[in-house]
């Protein structure tokens, strides 16, 4: 059995869907209440592969909200993720994906050093961040979407915003090794890590966001949008492809121009309907078939009976592992989302 650990996008969002999750008593509660709310299994999932194989999973609502980080409730945030992991393990789930902020919090606050949750010892091999599949899908979206817009990769400049993160660095490795993109622009806050990545790749220009955006034919956005930052569409190339790999996704509402195309990055479509309700709550366009690629990774590992933390640690994703999860993804009927906003 596979598991998915997720969370809602805001307190307002959580309050609005509490009834649908089966917890009406949560609907009018404030942030302090959500800080103390325990994790809950709120959905049972059935997925059928195009091979005919069928698997079952559970969705674990962590009750984490992004406002916990914004209001410096760090202990509450980390406790949410650890408790959700323990909840999944106690219910016998073989492989669970950490979705959204779950994996970011785990890595940022080095939660791997906390192995004991009350009377339970966490078995980390039961968990995956899902970042390898996410990185693979982002790269396939670049490769498949660019030609549809008349952008030749061999002549294109690709900017990766969040280049030193786990997903961003993997995207850079793939684009460097598997495509013939003309130029890579590397954007991140940590200059030392940027220099290390540049040295590893043997190429790439280190730039700040303001410098890079006007030069880019394609922007792969895998970092959270800094507060107060706005993108002026008139400064971008036309056409320009923006792949929004963040969560929650907001580039489509911020950048609106007939020649600027926004693609929801890191989203996959399954060939067959998935039996679940949770994707309606996170507003997927086709909730029966669309999902986050990180969630799909745990499904793929369950299909293959690969009960291991396939994606784990920072900057450990190799091109070879991306190819491996990509082959499994195709085998079981997943494909990158290719619907544009403009």
Give a written overview of the molecule.
With 342 residues, the chain is an alpha/beta fold. The chain contains 13 helices and 17 strands. The protein has helices spanning 11-21, 31-36, 67-70, 74-90, 101-108, 131-148, 166-178, 191-201, 209-212, 251-254, 278-281, 293-304, 319-331, and strands at residues 2-6, 40-48, 54-61, 95-98, 116-117, 120-121, 127-128, 157-161, 183-187, 205-206, 218-221, 240-244, 260-264, 267-270, 290-292, 334-336, 340-341. A seven-stranded mixed sheet has the order 10-9-8-11-12-13-17, covered by helices on one side. Strands 2-3-1-4-7 form a five-stranded mixed sheet, sandwiched between helices. A three-stranded antiparallel sheet has the order 15-14-16. A hairpin with a 2-residue loop joins β5 and β6. The protein is globular and about 55 Å long.
Short characterization:
This protein has 342 residues and is an alpha/beta fold. It contains 13 helices and 17 strands. 37% of the residues lie in helices and 20% in strands.
